[in-house]
Amino acid sequence: MSATATATTTSLASGHRLGGDEFKPDQTLEDFDGYKFSPIREAQVSREMVTRYMNDMLYYAESDVVIVGCGSAGLSCAWELSKDPSLKIAIIEQSVSPGGGCWLGGQLFSAMIVRKPADKFLDELEVPYEEKENYVVVKHAALFTSTILSKLLMRPNVKLFNATAVEDLIVKNGKVSGVVTNWTLVTLNHNTQSCMDPNVIEAKVVVSGTGHDGPMGASGVKRLESIGLIKENKGMLSLDMNAAEDDIVRYTREVVPGMVVTGMELAELDGAPRMGPTFGAMLISGQKAAYAARASLARQAQEEQA
Ligand code: AHZ
């Protein structure tokens, strides 16, 4: 063992930490020899996870806003809403991995195109990009997604429940008042086991951002149609980037009392064209959905006082 390694091993024992931001050219592979973790009991690990999760379930059983779907629109909505620390925000994502389609650009290529002026949203998040005349290019869509996710999850008023699916809505007197949830693995197995009942989260506002039709896509507006709260889903139209992005932002709204719809789910509801791999409309639709949710909360508070 080299003299440097001996010195570092000694300092490791006294609590010195390897790594850090700086490149240390004199540190070697041998410096990791003798690396020792603090002891832990297995039951302690279990208790730490379970108490946190159960406390979150208790706390978020009554949320101000539940966001269904953690794609680019749902994430952008959550980011905007989380700026108000008084709001309790739960995000429900059926996949283990949050982010929906925004880990990649079109046809599984890496870069993400965002048309101006939605680059302001990237500036706010400090996501770097290459500037072009009418649009910007983020070198990898995952750079946007990982940045917004990490900043969002650091906010104290946000909880992400992933691997959890929304199976239905709570509706009372024509107002959406929450969601019906289950572990996604259970949701996917309702045809193999009889009666695996779900759980519920009450919410003053539900924001549905489940994307266009697909295995679980557009599930919010499909349910609204099947229970007669909306007349019909017109179905997403063929691709037209220029028309589509403006349409999606314009259509973002509280569709029925207590339920705001954002992102590509709106294309199914309102018959908007798809835009393919340009993401600006998802970011701004998410942002507008947050404003619509806040307006709904304010209106409900007034109604309660009257
Ligand atoms: O897993 C879904 C995804 O992460 C999740 N989701 C869907 N149904 C759910 C349910 N419960 C819980 N019942 C559910 N989660 O919702 C997320 C939707 O993300 P997305 O990326 O598919 O949709 P988006 O509207 O945020 O972004 C669309 C991006 C697209 S699609 C498109 C085109 O096809 O032309 N162009 C763009 C920019």
TrEMBL record:
InterPro entries: FAD/NAD-bd_sf, Sti35, Thi4_fam
Residue ranges of the region described as Disordered: 1-25
Binding site for substrate: 73, 93-94, 101, 166, 197, 212, 264, 274-276
Signal peptide limits: none
UniProt record similarity statement: Belongs to the THI4 family.
Pfam families: Thi4
First-tier enzyme category under EC: transferase
Protein EC: 2.4.2.60
GO molecular function, one term: iron ion binding
Superkingdom to which the source organism belongs: Eukaryota
NCBIfam families: sulfide-dependent adenosine diphosphate thiazole synthase
Bias kind Low complexity: ranges: 1-14
Subunit architecture: Homooctamer.
Residues where 2,3-didehydroalanine (Cys) is found: 195
Catalytic activity: [ADP-thiazole synthase]-L-cysteine + glycine + NAD(+) = [ADP-thiazole synthase]-dehydroalanine + ADP-5-ethyl-4-methylthiazole-2-carboxylate + nicotinamide + 3 H2O + 2 H(+)
Post-translational modification: During the catalytic reaction, a sulfide is transferred from Cys-195 to a reaction intermediate, generating a dehydroalanine residue.
Protein name in the entry: Thiamine thiazole synthase
